[in-house]
Amino acid sequence: MCVRAELLAKSADKIGSVEYLDKRNNYYGYGKLNLDEAMSFY
Q1: Cβ atoms within 10 A of the Cβ of 19, count?
Q2: pLDDT beneath 50: ranges in the chain
Q3: What number of other Cβ atoms are within 10 A of residue 21's Cβ?
Q4: How far apart are CA 20 and CA 40, in angstroms?
């Protein structure tokens, strides 16, 4: 996974009570982007 994709995956908020396997859900992907969290890595 490239650095940008990893950053977005780490900063995403999980959606609802659905199950995330290996930090990912087949329907929602990594979840909802949390831009504030993503920018805190810089």
Answers
A1: 8
A2: none
A3: 7
A4: 23
